[in-house]
Amino acid sequence: xxxxxxxAAFLDKPSPRRLFVSMTNHGQPPADDAQPAHDDAxxxxxxxxxxxxxxxxxxxxxxxxPRRIRSFVRRAGRSSEAQKRAFDVLGPQFLLPYAPxxxxxxxxxxxxxxxxxxxxxxxxxxxxAYIAKLRPADDFLGVEVHExxxxxxxxxxxxxxxxxxxxxxxxxxxxxxxxxxxxxxxxVHVFFPDPWHKKRHHKRRLxxxxxxxxxxxxxxxxxxxxxATDWQEYAEQMLEVLGGEPTLENTADxxxxxxxxxxxxxxxxxxxxxxHGVWDLVFRKRA
Length: 287
Ligand SMILES: C[S@@+](CC[C@H](N)C(=O)[O-])C[C@H]1O[C@@H](n2cnc3c(N)ncnc32)[C@H](O)[C@@H]1O
Prior knowledge:
The protein has one domain: Rossmann fold (3-Layer(aba) Sandwich), CATH 3.40.50. Helix content is 30%, strand content 15%. The protein is built from nine helices and eight strands. The protein has an eight-stranded mixed β-sheet, sandwiched between helices. Strand 3 (139-143), helix 5 (147-159) and strand 4 (165-168) form a beta-alpha-beta unit. Helix 2 (81-94) crosses helix 5 (147-159). Mean pLDDT is 84; it is low at 7-14 and 21-66. The chain binds S-adenosylmethionine. Residues 43-44, 46, 51, 71-72, 120-123, 127, 143-146, 149, 171-173, 191-194, 206, 265 line the site of S-adenosylmethionine.
């Protein structure tokens, strides 16, 4: 286990898995969507999953009391015993509770001066762990709502071991809004966000102008926003939305070459073998 001071002070309950109680629509499904039909193994690049494109479950309460449209739905999929163990053993050190107040980053990471990188929707956390190991001088805050994924990354943190990763198991939109102050981040990673293939679901896509503006406001001048997708039409949308955010500038002429630190996932590899494309976008906050 990595040598890191316990983050137990951040926990409000003895069982870290309870941190999930607040994370997904207070336990209710969203208004117009159903459970995406894939299991944990499908959490990688989106060509290999059909996230959020089923239409089998509508909660009448959601119609009567509409809530903000979210970029995720609560997916089926249980944590393995090893993932549950990781929650119990490593959760107190590495899981931070969601709270609508600024995160005390130096206390959470037990150091003050490291560059601060936010990753939204890390899935099973393979890429997160890879990058955190490659860049030990940087701090990584991973935000993910999928419980087995959180357990999987905790497990990796213990196995690797890693001391520069913390996790918040909550809607990243609220985390960015309420926990991360303006100009506080050096980088943001959004790798293979759910593409929400169907047109009527496009409103659920994470990377839309208001959220991109919010993300950009959290970056320091010179900080970067790195997105990747394997869904061409979403890539085009990203290019348009990021390009339309006045506080950001593109580091490339259109799509960027894949930065070396982003590993090629097995799903991406499979897609590439099948001839599918992958598009990286790297923008910087203007000074
Ligand atoms: C298609 S998966 C990609 C996972 C990973 N980045 C990868 O490249 O394999 C998208 C992930 O984003 C997560 N997600 C979607 N919206 C989110 C949100 N608002 N807050 C936190 N996680 C979110 C989903 O739970 C899912 O695990």
